[in-house]
């Protein structure tokens, strides 16, 4: 295999501006540009995922892999292949110029014939990862364990009917949590892809919920035991690969965590495509998590409106993302989280440079969404109209209701005497939507004007 896998891209991707004719350049994303007093890079905290981009051959249920990923050739010695994969991944991340990456244990280290061999492989490759991180300055946004690919997890990990599978999953997560701490990861993610059911005919839902709660409690206990300072994140998804997944959406996970006294231990890693699969907008999932104090991080991607499955495409809609970014900005922004590109190339995107085109386009989309959301914050009309809509709750009547001073009988009496006789008020939805569009269009106009000034 070559010393440089992405030899056609010879240097770090540069900012070219909105009218750049260089396809390997950013048109919007400028890492050091100040937005609301903070660098764009620090707002977005972008990460590259290693699984779809480097550990997936481009296969689907109807066909074998189409991608040029020589390290996935089964004829290679597994650890040689793992090192080649890691070299290519860090070459890509360095040239793309983003600050973070994310990975599963099996993305960087092959599974061995025994758990002891798997552990040795992972520890070896984590040491290699430390070297790459030190050379490049790239940091770990989050680590996680793959508890869904191996046949042992066909019926789930924590929710498996076999306690030995539970124990094996516990050992795997224990190790990966320790490796994430070793790499100074900002977060640790748990995605319960097979924590659900295919049929209720062989499923005890109550038992499986108790198992899952115990597993998550054990993870939190081990986090504190080893002194991991990062955030524990759960990633909701309604289904796929299971028929029904217990971590269905933000509200479901929040209810589960509160029910088992875990809501102070976990936050949410929200994925755009998972939100739409659950029948929600991504803005809804972000707004719900923020309002309940459980927002953590984001997997940035999109689904296809014609398909009812997780297509994990690169984001390309400023309209869709700007509303979610607005919610994030108005809450103060990320703390330990960021935007991880949990995204797949299309199977016909065969050139090595296609991975750059995809990430550049997705990052520029996020950057434009950030600029539009910042304009919404600066303009203030959305917040003003929202505040005015609830103004009555800050007056005497609203305060007395929420404080408990106003009883049913008192309220009923004031209504019966005619003292309280409310009239419907406009919600101004169309006005609000027009304001959002105006800010998105204004962001575009500013970009054109700035480009003209530089010419």
Describe this structure in words.
The chain is of the alpha/beta class and about 450 residues long. It has 2 domains: about 15-380, Alpha-Beta Barrel (TIM Barrel), CATH 3.20.20.150; about 390-455, no CATH class. It has helices at about 40-45, 50-55, 80-95, 105-110, 115-135, 165-180, 205-225, 250-260, 270-275, 280-290, 320-330, 355-380, 380-390, 395-405, 410-415, 430-455, and strands at about 15, 25, 35, 40, 45-50, 100-105, 140-145, 185-190, 195, 230-235, 245, 265-270, 295-300, 340. Helix 10 packs parallel to helix 11 and helix 11 packs across helix 12 (about 355-380). It is globular. The two termini are about 40 Å apart. The mean pLDDT is about 95.
Can you summarize this structure?
The protein is of the alpha/beta class and 455 residues long.
Shape: globular
Q: What is the CATH homologous superfamily assignment of the largest domain?
A: Divalent-metal-dependent TIM barrel enzymes
Order the strands across the largest sheet as they lie in space: 5-6-7-8-10-12-13-14
CATH third-level topology of the largest domain: TIM Barrel
Order of helices and strands: EEEEHEHHEHHEHEEHEEHEHHEHEHHHHH
CATH top level class name of the largest domain: Alpha Beta
**Structure annotation, total helices:** 16
| Distance between the ends | 42 Å
Number of DSSP strands? 14
How large a portion of the residues is in β-strands, by DSSP E? 5-15%
């Amino acid at each position: 295999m070559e010393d440089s896998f992405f030899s056609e891209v010879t240097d770090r991707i540069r900012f070219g501006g909105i009218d750049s004719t260089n396809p390997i350049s950013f048109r919007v994303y400028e890492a050091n540009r100040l937005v609301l007093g903070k660098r764009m890079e620090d707002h977005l905290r972008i990460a590259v995922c290693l699984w779809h981009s480097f550990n997936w051959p481009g296969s689907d249920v109807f066909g074998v892999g189409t991608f040029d990923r020589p390290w996935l050739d089964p004829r290679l010695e597994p650890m040689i292949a793992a090192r080649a994969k890691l070299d290519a991944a860090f070459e890509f991340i360095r040239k793309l110029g983003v600050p973070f990456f994310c990975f599963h244990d099996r993305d960087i280290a092959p599974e061995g014939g025994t758990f002891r061999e798997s552990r040795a492989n992972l520890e070896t490759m984590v040491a290699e990862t430390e070297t790459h991180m030190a050379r490049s300055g790239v940091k770990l946004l989050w680590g996680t364990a793959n508890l869904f690919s191996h046949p042992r997890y066909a019926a789930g990990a924590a929710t498996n009917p076999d306690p030995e599978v539970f124990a094996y999953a516990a050992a795997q997560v224990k190790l990966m949590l320790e490796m994430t701490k070793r790499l100074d990861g900002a977060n640790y993610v748990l995605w319960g892809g097979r924590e659900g059911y295919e049929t209720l005919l062989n499923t005890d839902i109550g038992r499986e919920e108790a198992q899952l709660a115990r597993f998550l409690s054990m993870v939190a206990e081990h986090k504190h035991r080893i002194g991991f300072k990062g955030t524990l994140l759960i990633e909701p998804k309604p289904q796929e690969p299971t028929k029904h997944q217990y971590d269905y959406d933000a509200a479901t996970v929040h209810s589960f965590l509160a029910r088992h006294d875990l809501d102070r231990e976990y936050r949410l890693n929200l994925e755009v495509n998972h939100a739409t699969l659950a029948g929600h907008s991504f803005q809804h999932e972000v707004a719900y998590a923020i309002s309940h104090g459980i927002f953590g991080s984001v997997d940035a991607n999109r689904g296809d409106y014609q398909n009812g499955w997780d297509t994990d495409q690169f984001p390309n809609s400023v309209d869709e993302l700007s509303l979610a970014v607005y919610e994030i900005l108005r809450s103060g922004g990320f703390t330990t989280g960021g935007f991880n590109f949990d995204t797949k190339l299309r199977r016909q995107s065969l050139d090595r440079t296609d991975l750059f085109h995809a990430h550049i386009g997705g990052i520029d989309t996020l950057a434009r969404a950030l600029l539009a959301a910042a304009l919404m914050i600066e303009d203030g009309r959305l917040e003003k109209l929202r505040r005015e809509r609830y103004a009555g709750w800050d007056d005497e009547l609203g305060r007395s209701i929420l404080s408990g001073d106003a009883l049913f009988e008192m309220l009923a009496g004031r209504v019966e005497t005619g003292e309280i006789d409310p009239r419907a008020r406009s919600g101004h939805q169309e006005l609000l939507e027009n304001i959002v569009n105006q800010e998105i269009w204004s962001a575009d106009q500013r970009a054109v004007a700035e480009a003209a000034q530089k010419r």
